[in-house]
Amino acid sequence: MPVVTASQESGLIEATLARLGVPAAEATIQAAALVEADLRGHASHGLRRLPTLAARIGNGVIVPGAVTKLDWHTESVLRVDGQGGLGPVVGRRATTALADRVQRTGVAVAAIAGANHLGILAPYVEDLSRQGLTALMTTTSEALVHATNGNQAIVGTNPLAIGIPAPGAPVVLDMATGLVSMGKIIDYAARGEPLPAGWAVDAAGQPTTDAAAAARGGAIAPFGGGKGYGLSLSLELLVAVLTGTALGPRVRGTLDTDQPATKGDLIIVFDTGLFTEVAAVGARIAAYLDEVRATAAPGQEVFIPGDRARAARERRLAEGITVPDELWARVTELAGDPVA
Amino acid sequence: MPVVTASQESGLIEATLARLGVPAAEATIQAAALVEADLRGHASHGLRRLPTLAARIGNGVIVPGAVTKLDWHTESVLRVDGQGGLGPVVGRRATTALADRVQRTGVAVAAIAGANHLGILAPYVEDLSRQGLTALMTTTSEALVHATNGNQAIVGTNPLAIGIPAPGAPVVLDMATGLVSMGKIIDYAARGEPLPAGWAVDAAGQPTTDAAAAARGGAIAPFGGGKGYGLSLSLELLVAVLTGTALGPRVRGTLDTDQPATKGDLIIVFDTGLFTEVAAVGARIAAYLDEVRATAAPGQEVFIPGDRARAARERRLAEGITVPDELWARVTELAGDPVA
After folding, report:
1. What pLDDT is stored for residue A337 in this prediction?
2. How many contacts does A have with B, using Cβ atoms within 8 A?
């Protein structure tokens, strides 16, 4: 399997997007979002998404160069209409506007509709926290998860990300609220391996260990039982009620190639320094994180949210990103295709 | 076991607090918080807390009549210093100030330090959502939960509550981030029943099914594995970084009788109507919640967050609250004690 550097991967993505009419500055931002996912080990949100993005641009449901409408409804509430633009482009415009504004207001919120898939959330909150800001971000996504006691997909995998400034590196949580990702279930299916019990139901609503059956219209279990389901549903509602976007099965446009994106994104940013004495709190956080790590059971390691992604990122920056053969063939063909 | 009405319970609590010098208006608010917990089936946060509250007042770590400092740092950031006041009194003052302010600012945040235990969070977000507001609330608590791969208590059970206005009744999530409560483990110990595997470790950090051993300096597992642990730790940091309060083992004052409360509370309120067209979104939410319920597996019921608490509340309002004999003896003695 080919091993590529981050800059090779972003070069290929940028070239592909340029051929599709994406302005260079936008292509750079979109490429960075995909590369970050691959570097951190979230291949399902990396280069693998490029063919879908390309098809969506071709089908007019991603609009390169779309003007993002940034509308401050109050001093601290930003309504964002992405107008079909690339997700990371809209997301970055929103976080930049929030980071500027929050110095004055202490808290600022962006409610985003009409943006395509933002990609993994960690880089957004991480970048905000590197500026000393505290951030919370969540987004809706296609209904792939069943309710506790339910047997059909009805809530999104709705990720939640939290970024906390801390000495050294920010603490960065980024978790989906499904027990596993559909990407993982598809990987099991590709390998012909059975799923662990309790991961999924099939399209008929029956619990299944058949990965292929789960992937064909089945549903993933929520993480953490009833609490995880309750959290996932509450995030679905929180995003919808503040962004006016779609709910449950009406969320479209991040996995398919021809439907407008109907999900929403919510970003809340706090100017940490307006709340507390940052240096003092930072020192206490650093000491506490050391304490948390020191509670490891014998032979185990306790991780702080963000640790593993950071380690994975550094390893792949040094050693490169391994790309499956079929994907590499597909994206190099896409990059080299004559413009239709 | 005695069965009492909600008003009998609140009368007894108010009488006890009055004898301890708590102003009548504050006693009413504190009593309501305890009664709400009992009505909703969270006995560990109900009348059972009264002896601890009384001892804390006696020891000067709860200060009846304390003036709550409400300091708007910006138009939308409220720093609250409870000055040792009763938790629900401080909490209600904060939510009232936020509900007033948010009509203008769209979002408002209270960062609370120096308040005693607020009680269960659901009533706060529920009341805000009954006013059409969307609310998110979290709080730190004594370190009782171990990290994933850890074997000592190092994070709080840090509950998260989310309130979403919806036609009929708000959707109200209120979940602790421990797998179970320490109260439940103590109940197992009292009945001499073994704990299910994976619930807890003992004081030596060994996994245990001995409930009494777990309760004596052991630790509860986080809910939902690594994701739940990551969420719990992130909430611990989020509260601490925005309120300047204590972290991990330095959180005190909600379970003991003589330590000042060092935890923090964070409340974020959104004026839903400033974000979206409330009537339209409300109709969509109602339709979606029906869809979610309709996904129930055969013979099962899918619950919406808040459903079960509301049903439990209505049942106990009609049928009364059952109080264990030893607790009833203790609180009636407390209510009748001559003032020291």
Report:
1. 58
2. 253
DSSP state of A133: -
Give the separation between CA B9 and CA B7, rounded to whole angstroms: 5
Longest dimension (CA), chain B: 60
Q: How far is B32 from chain A (nearest CA, A)?
A: 26
B interface mutation test: which of A98, A137, A173 has the most B CBs within 10 A? Answer: A173
Q: Which residue of A has its CA nearest to B136?
A: A238
Rounded Cα gap, residues A121 and A223, in angstroms: 18
Query: In the structure, what pLDDT confidence band is assigned to residue A339 with cuts at 50, 70 and 90?
Result: very low
pLDDT for the residue B98: 98
pTM for the predicted model, two decimal places = 0.97
Whole-number Å distance between alpha carbons of B41 and B184 = 12
In DSSP notation, A279-335 reads HHHHHHHHHHHHHHHTTBPTT--PPPTTHHHHHHHHHHHHH-EE--HHHHHHHHHHH
- CA A215 to each of CA A220, B50, B180: distance values in angstroms, whole numbers, following the listed order: 9, 52, 32
The interaxial angle of helices A24-39 and A87-105, nearest 10 deg, is 90
Q: What is the ipTM of this complex?
A: 0.97
Which residues of chain A make contact with B305, given a CB cutoff of 8 A? Answer: 230, 233-234
CB contact under 8 A, B105 and A77: yes
Q: Which of A4, A15, A87 is nearest to A38 (CA)?
A: A4
- Strand bridging mode B107-115 / B69-72: unpaired
To the nearest whole angstrom, how far is the Cα of A114 from the nearest Cα of chain B?
Answer: 14
- Give the gap in angstroms from C-alpha A62 to the nearest C-alpha of chain B: 24
